[in-house]
Design a protein that fits this description.
Blueprint (H helix, E strand, L loop, with lengths): L3 E3 L8 H21 L6 E4 L1 H11 L2 H8 L7 H17 L6 H16 L5 E7 L15 E5 L2 H13 L4 H10 L8 E7 L7 E6 L10 E8 L3 H5 L5 E6 H5 L7 E3 L5 E5 L7 E5 L2 H4 L6 H22 L5 E7 L6 E8 L10 E7 L5 E8 L3 E9 L2 H5 L6 E4 L7 H6 L2 E4 L7 H9 L3 E3 L4 H4 L5 E5 L5 E6 L4 E7 L9 E6 L5 H4 L7 E5 H9 L3 H5 L6 H10 L6 H20 L4 E4 L5 H4 L22 H4 L5 H17 L5 E5 L5 H13 L11 E5 L2 H5 L1 H4 L5 E4 L1 H9 L17 H16 L3 E4 L3 H4 L1 H10 L3 E4 L4 H26 L2
Parallel strand pairs: 16-17, 17-18, 18-19, 23-24, 23-30, 24-25, 25-26, 26-27, 27-28, 28-29, 29-30
Antiparallel strand pairs: 1-2, 2-5, 3-4, 3-5, 6-7, 6-12, 7-8, 8-9, 10-11, 12-13, 14-22, 15-19, 15-21, 16-20, 20-21
């Protein structure tokens, strides 16, 4: 009988011998050694040894008797039976030689790494970390275990945790026979991440299932804080295709609160403890970009290896740690991702609110769903006992022991945790919406409150007051044929880019910067460049907002680039047309610090907006920040599918000036494949389209402004709203002239205005006119695509009839 095997000698084929976790660690040793990536050394106490303990002590009949007639949904009964099973295992005598083998293997580690080397003792079930099953959080782990006697006790306790309440319940619900699963124990050298940072990374976006990114979470100290949901971690995305093409950039990041961290206890004590993180550390990212990129590279290689072995794509969930002594990154665990990757890829689920309410609390959204229910604030076991089916569970954090209650909840809300914590993992597995890391949900919400939990508005989840109306639909994508006309999307929110990119579209016809600037940047560009012109209170607010960057201007550029880059990466290599900022002066004034730099205009709709700003002496340096961000996206991030679009360009000389300013900032039309479009939204753009075509590669019709200026209306005025209609014959004539003029000049022409989304007959009119692309709101893409297909079939039939009539 083999009691102990070195991790270095194991591989994925050894799951039956050492469980999924230990087998994967052995495989990592083999594949990452060649890649010069690091995995800590250690050994596995085998599943065979575990079974030998059962047999030697004759435990199976007693364990079966303890579980006979179990109702896993009765927490009190389950707790009594599970405790009895664990006591049997902890007290069981071991077969001769097992303890000696464990101590000998530990001695070999001590000889290499020093006497009393601290180790992590982790469970590894033989049915664990398989693509179709996840036992995450079901069994116990013990950290910073030092010395032979403590190690043997930790191994005993780890074996006994096969009969934890939550583990028993999980096996019952998953259909596993309790005695078909054995527990191997992994013993691995501890990485000194208590002196640095650690985290969890996925080779897939955990919310949308988008496969082309690595999602990395990070916090100070040991990774237990992230997994258990004790901290709101920093988050990073890396785009796999451009990374592998040589563009080593972080695509997007978010600063987490990181209020606490898990560190080693001081010798002679063993184990770990939680301590507060200083505010100076909380206000900066816990790792630099170099670490994030090294983790991403390891995750990409691990995913590729396991996918090649499986003969199919296998997204991976990887734990990593930075050693605070040697500064190196270590991979400490890897397993298949078992929730989002199992969804049906040809079905898209969309949920949306159909009414609005007051936002009570917000946090990090998990799952693209909406639910309503009465709040149940859980602070104690008594609160759990009172929990009713369909309530919204609100707690500081969840526990793996709450499995029965979590299954009955309509939604989960926690004060602490990030999108890879236990609550988030369980929520995805149970397919219920969750909002984690709210900070104050247990203080703001009270038991009995009627609320709506909405996770369908991007990365930010919101708890609304009252039971709001909503709708959910599942769309069978199937084999929808593609029209000749390009069907593109209007999109401004990077938070929903990955999800939206899975719709059957030809790219983004209008990516608006206004949402990114308002929601993420929040700062007026001139205020970023000249904070000295602002009063002290506003300067302090800017300092807090931009604390993670060297300067406010750097923050503006980086945050804007990451927002643009996220949309571009989601649709890569499909084209993404990014419209330069088109705020009006009254809207710019609402940005942080903006009122100092903006004029007061009687009619901002027709004033200092669009192209007129970019070359203006009062705004040009602010426009240069936008250019820097776009250059970083296209050349630094490698997302050359981005096209740039100039809005509200009144005159040809204005177009020449803007093109010149962009070129001075490194955005040269024609270089590195850069195409520059212009919004066709002013009658002069249509009248002089032959002249504008000399300076731009394409046109995108803005039907809102074109209608307004053709009819002489004001779309912001309720007094004349009845006159604003894109279906007016004069407006339709303008649309036809724009399409005809662009085609005459060999230029791409599309429409990104609201009209095709609101009026199917306008979409039909444009298809018949020969437009190249129609850009739509996501919720109207599929019905409009079907309408366009019908029109194109009709045109083809009409063409065939004409040919037949012409005849010889």
């Amino acid at each position: 009988m083999t009691n102990v095997l070195r991790l270095e000698d194991l591989g994925i084929a050894d799951v039956a011998r050492v469980g999924g976790k230990n087998a994967a660690l052995g495989e990592l040793h083999a594949i990452l050694r060649a890649e010069k990536l690091r995995v800590p050394g250690g050994f596995a106490v085998t599943a065979e040894a575990f079974r030998a303990v059962l047999a030697h002590a004759g435990l199976e009949p007693e364990l079966r008797a303890a579980l006979e007639g179990l109702d896993p949904e009765d927490p009190a009964d389950l707790a009594v039976r599970a405790r009895a099973c664990r006591e049997l295992l902890r007290d069981a005598p071991w077969p001769e030689g097992l303890a000696a083998d464990v101590l000998a293997a530990y001695g070999a580690l001590e000889a290499r790494l020093g006497e009393g080397v601290p180790v992590a003792v982790r469970s590894s079930a033989t049915a664990e970390d398989l693509p179709e099953a996840s036992f995450a959080g079901q069994h116990d782990s013990f950290l910073n275990v030092s010395g032979g006697e403590a190690l043997v006790e930790a191994v005993r306790a780890c074996m006994a945790s096969l009969f934890n309440d939550r583990a028993i319940r999980y096996r019952e619900n998953a259909g596993f026979d309790h005695f078909d699963v054995a527990l191997s124990v992994g013993v691995m050298q501890m990485v000194r991440s208590d002196l640095a940072a650690s985290g969890v990374a996925f080779s897939i976006d955990t919310e949308s299932g988008f496969p082309d990114v690595v999602f990395v979470t990070a916090a100070y100290g040991l990774g237990e804080a992230i997994v258990q949901g004790d901290v709101d971690p920093d988050e990073f995305y890396v785009h796999k295709p451009t990374f592998e093409a040589g563009h080593r950039r972080v695509l997007r990041r978010r600063l987490g609160a990181k209020a606490s961290k898990v560190v080693w206890k001081q010798p002679p004590e063993i184990g770990v403890r939680s301590v507060a993180v200083a505010s100076t550390e909380r206000n900066r990212y816990c790792v630099d970009d170099a670490v994030v990129l090294e983790v991403a590279e390891a995750v990409i290689r691990i995913e590729r290896h396991f996918s090649q072995r499986a003969g199919r794509q296998v997204p991976m969930d990887v734990e990593w740690a930075v050693d605070g002594v040697d500064g190196e990154v270590y991979i400490v665990q890897a397993r298949p991702e078992t929730v989002v990757s199992q969804r049906r890829s040809n079905v898209l689920r969309q949920a949306r609110l159909t009414e609005r309410g007051e936002v009570r609390v917000s946090g990090r959204a998990v799952g693209n769903r909406i639910a309503t229910g009465a709040v149940r604030v859980v602070r104690s076991a008594e609160d759990l006992r009172n929990f009713r089916e369909g309530e919204v569970l609100v707690a500081e954090m969840t526990s793996p022991d709450w499995g029965t209650v979590l299954r009955r909840a309509s939604a989960l809300v926690t004060d602490r945790g990030g999108r890879t914590c236990h609550a988030a993992i369980v929520a995805r597995e149970l397919d219920v919406p969750a909002i984690v890391g709210c900070g104050d949900a247990t203080a703001v919400l009270a038991t009995g409150d009627a609320v709506t939990v909405c996770c369908a508005e991007g990365e930010t989840g919101r708890i609304y007051d009252g039971a709001l109306a909503f709708e959910t639909e599942e769309i069978e994508l199937g084999d929808l044929p593609r029209p000749r006309t390009q069907m593109m999307l209007n999109l401004g929110n990077p938070d929903i880019a990955f999800k939206t990119a899975m719709l059957p579209s030809d790219g983004v016809g209008l990516a608006r910067l206004e949402f990114i600037i308002t929601d993420a940047v929040k700062l007026h560009p001139m205020a970023a460049l000249h904070p000295e012109r602002l009063d002290p209170a506003v300067r302090r607010e800017i300092e807090q907002l931009t604390r993670s960057c060297a300067s406010p201007a750097d923050f503006f550029v980086r945050t804007l680039a990451e927002g643009i880059g996220t949309i571009a990466a989601a649709f890569h290599p499909r084209p993404v047309v990014v419209r330069l900022s088109d705020f009006k002066s009254n809207e710019y004034a609402e940005l942080l610090g903006g009122s100092v730099f903006e004029p007061e205009e009687e009619n901002p709709m027709l004033g200092f907006r669009g192209a007129s700003r970019y070359a203006s002496p009062s705004y040009r340096e602010a426009f240069e920040l936008e250019c820097r961000a776009l250059k970083e996206v296209r050349e630094g991030m490698g997302l050359d599918n981005v096209r740039v679009m100039v809005p509200f360009c009144r005159r040809v000389p204005e177009a020449e000036q803007v093109i010149a300013v962009m070129a001075e900032q490194g955005l040269v039309r024609g270089e590195h494949g850069l195409e520059v479009f212009v919004m066709c939204e002013i009658p002069n753009n249509v009248i002089l389209i032959d002249e504008f075509a000399k300076h731009f590669d394409g046109f995108s019709i803005g039907s809102n402004d074109l209608t307004q200026l053709t009819l002489g209306g004001d779309r912001d005025s309720e007094m004349v709203a009845f006159d604003f209609d894109e279906r007016d014959p004069g407006v339709l004539r303008m649309l036809a002239m724009a399409v005809e003029g662009a085609r005459r000049n060999g230029r791409h022409v599309g429409i990104c205005g609201q009209a095709p989304s609101d009026y199917p007959e306008v979409a039909e009119f444009l298809v018949r006119a020969g437009i190249d692309a129609i850009s739509l709101n996501p919720d109207t893409l599929l019905p409009t695509t079907l309408r366009v297909l019908e029109v194109e079939r009709s045109l083809a039939t009409e063409g065939d009839d004409s040919s037949a009539e012409a005849g010889p």
